[in-house]
UniProtKB/TrEMBL annotation:
It comes from the Bacteria. Residues 4-196 form the DSBA-like thioredoxin domain. GO terms for molecular function: isomerase activity. It comes from Pseudomonas hormoni. Gene3D superfamilies: Glutaredoxin. It catalyses: 2-hydroxychromene-2-carboxylate = (3E)-4-(2-hydroxyphenyl)-2-oxobut-3-enoate. SUPFAM superfamilies: Thioredoxin-like (SSF52833). Keywords: Isomerase. Belongs to the GST superfamily. NadH family. This is 2-hydroxychromene-2-carboxylate isomerase. Its EC number is 5.99.1.4.
Length: 196
């Protein structure tokens, strides 16, 4: 039986975006399954007492330089979003809703949102901008907004976040292989080793 990578993610993390660009290739290389688990990073921070590195000016400046280095290494686009940090509550509810109600469109959905934030630098704190991005990518903003109000969807995101904390997750991206936690997009070589 092939191994799995459980990928705990929030759209608002640039490191998570970079991991997102690489994990499908890693899983294809080792013939393993990638399981996407949406979480609310703000909820993780609150539960664990953690905070974004960007809250410490020197560390934040370094982090974005380092992420830029990795983007060049991975040969993927990355643009610092001038609207960072983004409140992702509604976005991650939408992601959870798409996974729950329209799994066949889930990957296309997260792809357009990751790109809007981390390639195009769009302000996804602004509902009008979100609606434009969704429309441009073939999604109905009204239907997506309805998903964010769905009680089952809200519960799914909350449960994912709570279970992540119980498993020791303190930030994103977090990946599990055989119940081993790997934190950060700069730990993908360990993920690869664990799969192999």
């Amino acid at each position: 039986m092939s191994k799995t990578v459980e990928f705990y993610f929030d759209l608002g993390s640039p490191a998570t975006y970079l991991a997102y660009t690489q994990l499908p290739k890693i899983c294809a290389q080792i013939d393993s399954q990638l399981i996407y688990i949406p979480i609310l990073l703000g909820g993780i921070f609150k539960a664990t007492g953690n905070a974004s590195p960007a809250t410490i000016p020197a560390k934040g400046a370094y982090m974005f330089q380092d992420l830029d280095r990795y983007a060049r290494r991975y040969d993927v686009p990355l643009k610092f979003n001038p609207n960072f940090p983004i409140n992702t509550l509604m976005l991650m509810r939408a992601v959870s809703g798409m996974q729950l109600r329209h799994p066949e469109r889930f990957l296309t959905f997260i792809d357009c949102l990751f790109k809007a934030i981390w390639v195009e630098g769009r302000n996804l704190d602004d509902p009008a901008t979100v609606a434009t991005v969704l429309t441009q990518n073939g999604f109905d903003p009204t239907e997506v907004l309805a998903l964010t109000a769905d009680e089952d969807v809200k519960a799914a995101l909350k449960n994912n976040t709570e279970k992540a904390v119980q498993r020791g997750v303190f930030g994103a991206p977090s990946m599990f292989v055989d119940n081993q936690l790997f934190f950060g997009q700069d730990r993908l070589d360990f993920v690869l080793e664990a799969l192999a």
